[in-house]
Amino acid sequence: MNPILNNDVHDRPIMDLNPFGLEFRSNPSRFHELMFKNSPGFIMMEGVRSAFVATYDHCISVLRDFKSFSSQKPKGLPGMQRVDFFNSLPVMNYSDPPDHTRRRKVVNPAFGPKRTAMLIDGASQLIDRLLDKILPNGGMEVIGEFARPIAVDTMLRQFLGIDPKDHHIFLNYVQTLPLLDSIGLHDPKPKPYLDAWNAGKEYCREQQELARRGECENLIGLIANTAEGGAISDDEMMAMMMVMLTGGFPTIAGALGASLMNLARTPGLAERINETPSLSHNHLEETLRLNPPVSLVMRFAANDTDVGGTLIPQGTPVYVMIGAACSDPAVFTDPYRFDVDRPNAKNHISFGTGVHTCIGNTIARPIVPLVLRKIAERAPGMRLAGHDGDIRWNVGTPRARHIERLVVAF
Ligand code: HEM
Predict the structure, then answer these.
(1) Separation of 252 CA from ligand 1 center, angstroms?
(2) Is the beta carbon of 298 within 6 A of some atom in ligand 1?
(3) Residue of the nearest CA to atom 40 in ligand 1?
């Protein structure tokens, strides 16, 4: 039994579950027991009989079987227009091997140890500069003043290599994504989204031109060099940049926000991190388990497949509830408690699992603990400034759940 959450949805008909609905997004944990009890289950999503899996074992079975559960979105499926962030361009996360393998291989060098070390170095300097400025104020709004600036600088400037004067192009684009949430199957994409997309596309096209002349030092140049011999098309390149952006910047900011919330909420933890700095890594893993930035991913049954004794028919869209799986009591004891010493915290599937395992985990995994160690060292008394209820969550996009506002005192 989930001890801290209101279980008033416990006896609802499972068919009424709507993982894209606002009620669900506002507090997905409320629906965990209902989902565990019925997993794998069937729901109606925009008139389409769809399946969901929620237990840890069921989610793992689906995510590790890319032959039976494809990542390629079928064309014209109601609901998918709401999560078509990449304007129907071919992206690695919505493709299967061998296309997926080729796309992932092209971008893989961007995540090598040398580049990661450079990101950590840059982030370390930025964190110190921000703290020099913020600490004398006696408190901060964590997301706007601290987590976002770190995520933007690390992902946009350092990782993607986008000049700060052009950041607005990509920040605008991310801001328009929630607009897709309200459109119908045959509706045109909202104009602000299309304008932002086209601005991003134009930027990428210019950079590709520079890359061809060997004058581009950002990620586009790197990918272009790796992709010699036409391994990647212009459209794929554009899609790649947008994936890196949407996959990387909001999720890192989200993971930072939730990790700092858990630090601020747990008396004595900063001292423990100061004594044993490696604890900061388990802190991140436990945060990703308890507060997953991505709450669900989708797959599509490529053939009739049995999951846990239930047949999922070919063609069925499958909602893989990774957020629920990370709180499955069969795997994680007392799952709704933040336990920085949890021995199996790292078994969460917040980065997914299988061929699509998050490629950016090698960036998130060192950066977030670095931030935690710096805060523990320089602001060991950091605590929530108000009540837990003052923490505001952003539920603007169907698959993600990030903190929008979190105020702390030092
Ligand atoms: C804490 C931060 C992050 C979380 C929680 C997260 C979560 C995820 C999840 C759940 C998936 C699997 C999607 C699926 O199976 O369909 C994924 C894939 C992906 N992520 Fe992340 N991510 C994070 C950070 C990043 C960063 C920093 C980047 C890039 C710079 C990134 C880029 C990607 C890409 C490109 C994929 C697709 C991989 C593939 O299809 O092979 N992510 N991420």
Answers:
(1) 10
(2) no
(3) 93
| β-strand pairing of 310-312 with 305-307 | antiparallel
* Partner residues linked to 52 by β-bridges: 41, 319
CB of 60 sitting under 6 A from ligand 1: no
Token pair in block for residue 174: 């991310």
The pTM assigned to this predicted structure is 0.93
pLDDT in tens, 121-175: 999 999 999 999 999 999 999 999 999 999 999 998 999 888 899 999 988 888 8
Q: Where are the beta strands (DSSP E) in 233-370?
A: 297-301, 305-307, 310-312, 317-320
Q: Of 41, 85, 37, nearest to 320 (Cα)?
A: 41
> Does the beta carbon of 239 lie inside 6 Å of ligand 1?
no
User: Dihedral angle at the C-alpha atoms of 253, 258, 261, 266, nearest 10 degrees?
Assistant: -140
| Distance, CA of 307 to CA of 40 (rounded, Å) | 7
Q: Whose CA is nearest to atom 18 of ligand 1?
A: 358
Quick check: CB of 289 below 6 Å from ligand 1? Answer: no
Tell me: pLDDT of 4 over 60: no
Give CA 364 to chain center in angstroms. 10
Span from the CA of 51 to the centroid of ligand 1 (angstroms): 23
